[in-house]
Specification:
Number of helices: 3
Structural class: mainly alpha
Function: Part of the twin-arginine translocation (Tat) system that transports large folded proteins containing a characteristic twin-arginine motif in their signal peptide across membranes. TatA could form the protein-conducting channel of the Tat system.
GO cellular component, one term: TAT protein transport complex
GO molecular function, one term: protein transmembrane transporter activity
Largest sheet: none
Number of strands: 0
Pfam families: TatA_B_E
Radius of gyration: 43 Å
Region (Disordered): 64-107
Length: 107
């Protein structure tokens, strides 16, 4: 809401006529104090709203970062490398030197 110069002069003239020139400084101080309190209250409300609005976003961002980190840390191939070829401690038999081994039978 913007007031033109003419509107502000009409308001000032109405205040002078209604309250007199002696009370004008007192009224101006009261108006200034009220405006300062209103600005402070609006700033406090803005700060609270921004805190509340920012808080869920930062929590969501933290959760996304945790998921990204766990996805990077997860390596299914590392687990499979250990399990794919279990270590066999039995001695290997060389069948080429063993005459009792007949090998695969084909029919």
């Amino acid at each position: 809401m913007e007031l033109s110069i003419g509107e502000m002069l009409m308001i000032a003239l109405a205040i002078v006529v209604l309250f007199g020139p002696d009370k004008l400084p007192e009224i101006a101080r009261g108006l200034g104090e009220g405006v300062r309190k209103m600005r402070g209250a609006v700033d406090d409300i803005k700060t609270e709203i921004m805190k509340e609005a920012d808080n869920p976003l930062s929590e969501i961002k933290n959760e996304i970062e945790k998921v990204k980190q766990s996805a990077q840390d997860f390596n299914p191939l590392a687990e499979k490398k250990n399990d794919a070829f279990p270590k066999d401690d039995t001695p290997k038999i060389d069948h080429s030197e063993d005459d009792s081994h007949e090998g695969p039978v084909s029919r």
